[in-house]
Automatic annotation (TrEMBL):
It comes from Marchantia polymorpha. The keyword Chloroplast does not apply. Its EC number is 1.1.1.37. GO terms for biological process: malate metabolic process; oxaloacetate metabolic process; tricarboxylic acid cycle. The keyword NAD applies. It is an enzyme of class 1 (oxidoreductase). It catalyses: (S)-malate + NAD(+) = oxaloacetate + NADH + H(+). The active site is at 188 (proton acceptor). Pfam families: Ldh_1_C, Ldh_1_N. Keywords: NAD, Oxidoreductase, Tricarboxylic acid cycle. NAD(+) binds at residues 12-18, 43, 106, 130-132. Belongs to the LDH/MDH superfamily. MDH type 2 family. Residues 6-153 form the Lactate/malate dehydrogenase N-terminal domain. This is Malate dehydrogenase.
Length: 330
């Protein structure tokens, strides 16, 4: 029997990530090739015409799984009964900016949209925040939508996770599918810690052994992943879009349909104090997912090198949280 359609909201749908993401969702890349979807697309009034153009193209592409389109500039209408919300709407950073430089513009959007989701979305809506500063926007959304369970609010660090897999695969000249269990700890910012101490290739060979170059792994590799967003902006004069859209699909797909046996992924989720990360932050952890629920992978040994890096990125998130509240109260 055909499945009932799932309603998926994409905010900022007329923007560049939106333009890459909505066809992926309509093709079944996010939720599976047998899962019909109804796309809800939100943008702001100045982008209404462009949003309508995206809607026209979705119609023209005749996606068999796409059972309906809501394209609107009304946030309440956009959020109505949605089961999944991918929050991309906001202002991207430009060359020379840090992600927190877009804080003042974006946190106020996330406060307002929290209320709209709380009032209109399905009670078990799963939320993924993509817009930067992603962790702090997600935290603000959580705080201003208290009836949405905290387990249902997350932010995107899967792009960083995929970037780390990609760098290891390039270095070893192996397919990216042979590498797994890297970890992105902390903030989706240049303070994030891409950790390969537990990563393996071909099922069980430690990445550290395969790479056999600790100086590279502890230096250039970490820096490359931390700075990859800036490198893309420098090259394209625009921030990452196709890789962000694809990683957002990976994030939701694994969350809803489950992670493969023996594999974890990185998600920005509400800290419960695991690994001595302060509770009350949205922090990227290694997680496994089953039946629509994520769980933080527990008891991985953390050495002194890693501990310092986990703490430094947590400190930045504490500062961002304070800054976000200053912006909101101004
Ligand atoms: N977490 C991650 O890994 C990544 C996050 N990003 C972030 O994603 C966000 C979107 O990036 P792009 O699509 O490249 O930007 P973009 O500027 O091309 O598109 C953003 C869209 O959001 C819309 N928008 C602005 N305010 C809105 C509001 N209040 N409600 C609904 N829509 C609104 C804009 O009109 C625009 O169409 C940026 O904040 C960017 O920094 C980008 C890449 C990766
Ligand atoms: O760097 C940016 O501003 C966009 C982004 O978050 C990324 O590509 O990781």
């Amino acid at each position: 029997m055909a499945k009932d359609p799932v309603r998926v909201l994409v905010t900022g749908a007329a923007g560049q990530i939106g333009y890459a993401l909505v066809p992926m969702i309509a093709r079944g890349i996010m939720l599976g090739a047998d899962q019909p979807v109804i796309l809800h697309m939100l943008d702001i009034p100045p982008a209404a015409e462009a949003l309508n153009g995206v809607k026209m193209e979705l119609i023209d592409a005749a996606f068999p799984l796409l059972k309906g389109i809501v394209a609107t500039t009304d946030v309440a209408e956009a959020c109505k009964d949605v089961n999944i919300a991918v929050m991309v709407g906001g202002f991207p950073r430009k060359e020379g900016m840090e992600r927190k430089d877009v804080m003042s513009k974006n946190v106020s959007i996330y406060k307002a949209q929290a209320s709209a989701l709380e009032a209109n979305a399905a009670k078990d809506v799963k939320v993924l925040v993509v817009a930067n500063p992603a962790n702090t926007n997600a935290l603000i959304l959580k705080e201003f939508a208290p009836s949405i369970p905290e387990k249902n609010i997350s932010c995107l660090t899967r792009l960083d996770h995929n970037r780390a897999l990609g760098q290891i695969a390039e270095r070893l000249d192996i397919p990216v599918s042979s590498v797994k269990n890297v970890i992105i700890w902390g903030n989706h910012s240049s303070s994030q810690y891409p950790d390969v101490y537990h990563a393996v290739i071909d099922g069980d060979k430690p990445v550290r052994e395969a790479v056999a170059d600790d100086a590279w792994l502890d230096g250039e590799f970490i820096k490359t992943v931390q700075q990859r967003g800036a490198a893309i902006i420098k090259a394209r004069k625009l921030s990452s879009a196709l890789s962000a859209a694809s990683s957002a699909c990976d994030h939701i797909r694994d969350w809803v349909l489950g992670t493969p046996e023996g594999t974890w992924v990185s998600m920005g989720v509400y800290s419960d104090g695991s690994y001595n990360v302060p509770a009350g932050l949205i922090y990227s952890f290694p997680v496994t997912c089953s039946k629509g629920v994520w769980s933080i992978v527990q008891d991985l040994p953390i050495n002194e090198f890693s501990r310092k890096k986990l703490d430094a990125t947590a400190e930045e998130l504490v500062e961002e949280k304070q800054l976000a509240y200053t912006c909101i109260n101004e």
